[in-house]
Amino acid sequence: MALSGWEAADTFRLYNLYLRQAFGKDERFVIKVGQIAADTDFMISRYGGTFLNAAFGDLPSQNLNLDAPVYPLAAGGVYASAQILPWLKGRIAGYTGDAGEDVAGNHGFEGKLGSNAGHTFFWELAAAAPASWLPATYTLGYIYGTGGSDQLGPAADRGHHYEIYLMVDQALIADDQGNPVLGAFARIAGSTEDETNVVNIYADGGLAWFGPFPSRPNDVLGIALSVLRFTESFQSQQRAAGTPVGSGETALEVTYQLAIAPWLVIQPDAQFFFNPSVSRTDAQALACEVSVIF
Amino acid sequence: MAGLLSVLLMVGSARGEDAASGALEQQTLTGNWGSVRPALSEHGLKPYLTYTSMLWGNVNGGQATGVQVNGYLDFGLDVDLAKLGFWQGFGAHADFH
What we know:
The complex is a heterodimer. By secondary structure, chain A is mainly β.
């Protein structure tokens, strides 16, 4: 699990580039075509977005299981969403299975199309809680990859594979306007397929407390925990390669978003790693992120 | 990259009427660029630029301990093509990092 969701090769690249068409009142239907990263649209947790560790970002376990384009790379794809009912939104997308390598020199343009690269498809249904409840979104997702060559390592063939995920974003306390004061998120993603996946189960959950001090209404205090388990196949493959990994990883993060201005956020952060997969020794890290919107 | 940044900062420092509102209240560091930004938005163009910097240290355990600084620049452009004379609901987006 990367300490920061921003981890990427030190280079400059094109990311998303697409055309977008919206139809109907309040953009009831949307279609996007172009170079798209799957994690800009799928498995996005409102409260999970508070955290810095890549595990709590969008598509956490899928970064290891998926062939679809995810940060830091985008690739050819088609996306559509529909507000099916006032409380129910559907999203569907197909992407090329090979976004290329994240290296300097290709500037994000190495994605391949066609049956060798394979394709990855996403379906997601997101239901909003009834108006009389505290605000919440309940999401069910399904991911299917056709497999192809050059996946999960150079020149490795990979069969088709799938993954299912469930996600809850639940306000536990809301103010008079219905804005969350305390929000909780929980996600679980997994697959029964062992041989074609790296991770067989991933789960995370956490709390975000908005305006923890009366004088600082825009600050956010958060705590979150993530757990993942590697498949037996991946563990034995790594043992055979001489780079054994543990059975999984656990990370705990405590973070505070100090909102100085709408354009300036300073975020001190502490992360605790238990049984990390490579070093196998528990680790602790401190970080401070500064974000400026120009 | 540094050149682009300094251009944006220069445009930002030339901002006029929004200087009245406090620097900490405005939505972006460089304000409305002396009303260039609202004018662009009027024509369907919404550029943005975000810089994220992270100082982090592995204090104990793991593979290695130490302190590191990373910077991340993300910028892009949202285009509402309907405002540029195309049909309703048509748009384009590009971003880089």
